[in-house]
Write a structure and sequence with these properties.
Two copies of one chain form a homodimer.
Chain A (H helix, E strand, L loop, with lengths): L21 E5 L5 H14 L4 E9 L5 H9 L2 E6 L9 H21 L4 E5 L2 H5 L5 H9 L6 E5 L5 H6 L2 E9 L15
Parallel strand pairs in A: 1-5, 1-6, 2-3, 2-4, 4-5
């Protein structure tokens, strides 16, 4: 592209004002959760009440984003039981995911939050631990001011259908595939 | 997927320890910059010095993420001149983008930062305002501890080639396409 291709006209002006939106970040690539956290940062800076519920990460694994988010006033709930392959009791892991959904329902229905992030919720949905139809129903019938971001690979079709904005994070390449270890400060 | 498909084995253990990585968030979809900001949040929480340089957004447009980032201790430089279609003097807009790159070079080469985010740098690169070969050279020869995230649509091939991790944010759907206006707190 040359300088002459510099856009001199903006996009068409949008006309519809939505009271809130549902966003889904899915795909195999990096950035599904971090994009949700970046948006949470934006939302809390506007004075909204923001809640992040982590369905897979457990409270045992204190990560950098949690520390930063809490210092910004974001409510951060790591209800998950950690990676399933570390689980010593899969029934317990499943019960914990169900509990995370019970808490999420309360947060969404309360209408107190400008943004609720359901981080990695697609996994327990796909494993049959949380009923997809109920998740879709609760999101669809949420108080009108509550924005929702759901993240995780393989977002169920009903969730994609319901969402206003869906982004597929596609992996063009990933350092992990070359055996590069996760870097503290970048990857967690 | 059924409960029996719950993964019980983790991925292969990585063996290589990289002192830093280069990440590129590109594509037409939402989340390129917010994923970079989410990672910046993570990095600053680990005690790193972090700098975000915005190549397109101007200081006139104070956005939520800037306020939150600054309160976390992230250095946030909005050197851009705003959207090109709002420019009243394209030579000035170009000079400002070049200046943003001069500042970025200093920040990267200083070795003081654990993470430097070059937000929306692909646009001035693609418009021929900043030499791609130089950007690639500076990143390639950076101090080994400096991680880099570059964002923007149409990432130049040389930048993709150099990067360790490249994610294409693909738009499955976007509320804007239905004429929904940007929401303060979500989109800016």
């Amino acid at each position: 592209m040359k300088s002459k291709d510099v856009p001199t006209e903006g996009p068409a002006l949008a006309t519809t004002k939505a009271s809130s939106v549902v966003m889904v970040n899915t795909g195999e690539g990096k950035g599904k959760s971090t994009a949700a956290f970046g948006t949470a940062m934006r939302a809390v800076a506007r004075g909204w009440k923001v809640c992040v519920i982590q369905f897979v990460k457990s409270g045992k694994w204190k990560v950098g984003e949690e520390k930063a988010a809490v210092s910004l006033g974001i409510e951060w709930l790591t209800i998950g039981d950690g990676f399933t392959w570390d689980s010593k009791n899969m029934d317990r892991t499943e019960a914990i995911a169900r509990h995370a959904w019970t808490v999420s329902k309360e947060k969404i229905r309360s209408g107190d939050y400008g943004l609720v992030v359901l981080d990695e919720i697609t996994y327990p949905m796909n494993w049959g631990w949380i009923p997809t139809a109920e998740v879709v129903d609760v999101i669809k019938n949420r108080p009108p001011s509550v924005n929702i971001i759901a993240t995780g690979r393989d977002a169920p079709a009903e969730l994609v259908e319901l969402a206003d904005t869906v982004t597929e994070m596609r992996k063009t390449k990933h350092a992990f595939d070359r055996g590069v270890r996760a870097i503290r400060g970048i990857d967690f």
